[in-house]
């Protein structure tokens, strides 16, 4: 009996960064957090398809003390729709056996058979 279950679901994530790589890495790192909110115990998250919903490049001129040293700053924003194959463990199908054990933190007194 297999307790694994593989499902496909679509997740929409977004990311920002100073380079294109940082923006995509930020968005892809968010996938795990989104899926962990919804599912049980995850074994694997595998991206199947990535669609770009929005890709924006923001440029602006930054100046020191409003006049000096102007420089161009660029930041990137992406919004992705990622289809992922999620393999998870179905906890409802697992039967746990119960065992009664003594208190591991109890103190054994030599002349008394009970623990405190």
The amount of beta strand, in percent, is: over 45%
| Order of adjacent strands in the largest pleated sheet | 1-3-2
* Total of DSSP H or I helical runs spanning 4+ residues: 1
What's the helix-strand series?
EHEE
Number of domains: 1
What is the CATH T-level topology? Translation Initiation Factor IF3
* Average pLDDT score: 87
CATH architectural arrangement: 2-Layer Sandwich
Helix content: 10-25%
Q: What is the 3D shape?
A: elongated
Strand count:
3
Derived from helix and strand composition plus strand pairing, the structural class reads alpha+beta
Q: Which spans have pLDDT < 50 for at least 5 consecutive residues? A: none
Distance between the termini: 43 Å
Q: Report on the biggest sheet.
A: 3 strands, antiparallel
InterPro entries: DUF4312
Pfam families: DUF4312
Protein name: Cytoplasmic protein
List the helices and strands and how they pair.
Elements: E1 4-17, H1 20-38, E2 41-64, E3 68-89
Antiparallel strand pairs: 1-3, 2-3
